[in-house]
Design a protein that fits this description.
GO terms for molecular function: 3'-5' exonuclease activity; DNA binding; DNA-directed DNA polymerase activity. It is built from six helices and 26 strands. By secondary structure, the protein is α+β, with helices and mostly antiparallel strands. The chain has three domains: about 1-115, DNA Polymerase III, subunit A, domain 2 (DNA Polymerase III, Chain A, domain 2, Roll); about 125-250, DNA Polymerase III, subunit A, domain 2 (DNA Polymerase III, Chain A, domain 2, Roll); about 255-365, DNA Polymerase III, subunit A, domain 2 (DNA Polymerase III, Chain A, domain 2, Roll), CATH 3.10.150.10.
Length: about 375
């Protein structure tokens, strides 16, 4: 195999591949990227047995071929090469070596047999549809903060993507929760997604997917089966196993009877929470909200560190309420608001609180209160 490729295109492709590779693994081939050159393209494939990423880039292929080389080492080399450099990769199968050449720099890397590289078994996808990158980005970006990190409740370690029916009709919905907070985000149901099975997309896959979704106008092809999910752009294909478990009935924890309504400037609220939380004890990070007519007082009382208080002007016309929250949870939810105002709906100091973005019902957040 011998190819010449522009440094920027190579860096992007190898960067995507090496981020999937597990740094510590007992199977040497899993640290490698599979490079396949044919025609006028070269593809880079990497896997950790749960996720597989395939990235294609245009290249000048002098001699077609296939090899595998350390993904992290190749990425580090390419990253340190000068911008605009033309990189030549030459494989010597008999010596088990790959030569990387750019300008006056030459590197020789050990390779492993391509036959040892594990391919993810292809799946019969039940449903395939297309969605704009901006829509998928919103669905996953606004829900991923609520993914649980508790390994014992493994079925909460991802985003539940499924179809549902809202007040506005059928939707594509993403939900994540860790038992303390919940995010439920809706988007219009794409054509072809009607019979899609609900799948739990793992946390690592959500992180890798984010790198595919930067161009707003790009259409992403999504394929779903009971065991796998695939996201494809014209050049990159990300395939992942889904979490084998049943996502809990999240509708039971979304309160319907919360009538006390508070409206506040989302950016100002987030900044105020951040300021008063500075002195709260790291363990609980509790912030108390004292709400009266058109007035909100945020306060923290940490006996060992001191106290803090800040007042905000809000729109609130119900009876006085005092309620406490974990500051980190409040900040994460407030930072999701794209619109100017955040709307909080309370019931009592012991019940879950609902938050949404102004009058937009397509994004709903729930946060459990704390005793303060």
């Amino acid at each position: 195999m011998k190819i010449s490729i522009e440094r920027g295109a190579l860096l992007k492709a190898v960067g995507q591949a090496q981020s999937v590779v597990e740094r510590r693994n007992t199977i040497p081939i899993l640290a490698n990227v599979l490079i396949e050159a044919e025609g006028d393209r070269v593809s880079f494939r990497a896997t950790d047995l749960d996720i597989e990423v395939l990235d294609c880039a245009p290249a000048e292929v002098s001699r077609a071929g296939t090899t595998t080389v350390s993904a992290v080492t190749l990425h580090e080399i390419v990253r340190k090469l000068p911008d605009g450099a033309l990189v030549t990769l030459t494989d010597d199968p008999t010596a088990g070596r790959l030569t990387v050449q750019a300008g006056k720099s030459t590197f020789t890397l050990a390779t492993l047999p391509k036959e040892d590289f594990p391919m993810m078994a292809s799946s019969e996808y039940v449903s395939t549809f297309k969605a704009p990158a901006a829509v998928l980005r919103r669905l996953f970006d606004k829900s991923k903060f609520a993914i649980s990190t508790e390994e014992t409740r493994y079925y909460l370690n991802g985003v539940y993507m499924h179809t549902a029916t809202s007040e506005d009709g059928p939707v594509l919905r993403c939900v994540a929760t860790d038992g303390h907070r919940l995010a439920r985000i809706d988007a219009p149901l794409p054509v072809g997604a009607e019979n899609m099975p609900g799948v739990i997309v793992p946390r690592k896959t959500v992180g890798e997917l984010r790198k595919l979704l930067d161009e707003d106008e790009m259409e992403i092809t999504v394929s779903v089966s009971e065991t796998k999910v695939r996201f494809a752009t014209p050049t990159i294909t990300l395939t992942s196993k889904v979490i084998d478990g049943t996502f809990p009935d999240y509708t039971r924890v979304i309160p319907l009877g919360n009538t006390r309504k508070l409206e506040v400037d989302a950016a100002e609220f987030a900044k105020a929470v951040d300021r008063v939380a500075t002195i709260s004890s790291e363990r609980s990070r509790a912030v108390k909200l004292s709400i009266d007519e058109d007035r909100l007082v945020l306060s923290v009382n940490a006996p060992d560190a001191g106290a803090a208080e800040e007042e905000l002007a809000v729109a609130y016309g119900d009876e006085r309420l005092e309620i406490g929250f974990n500051a980190k949870y409040l900040l994460e939810i407030a930072s999701q608001v794209d619109r100017e105002n955040a709307v909080f709906l309370f019931n009592s100091s012991g019940d879950p609180t609902l938050m949404r973005e102004g009058g937009d019902m397509s994004a709903v957040y729930v946060v459990m209160p704390m005793r303060v």
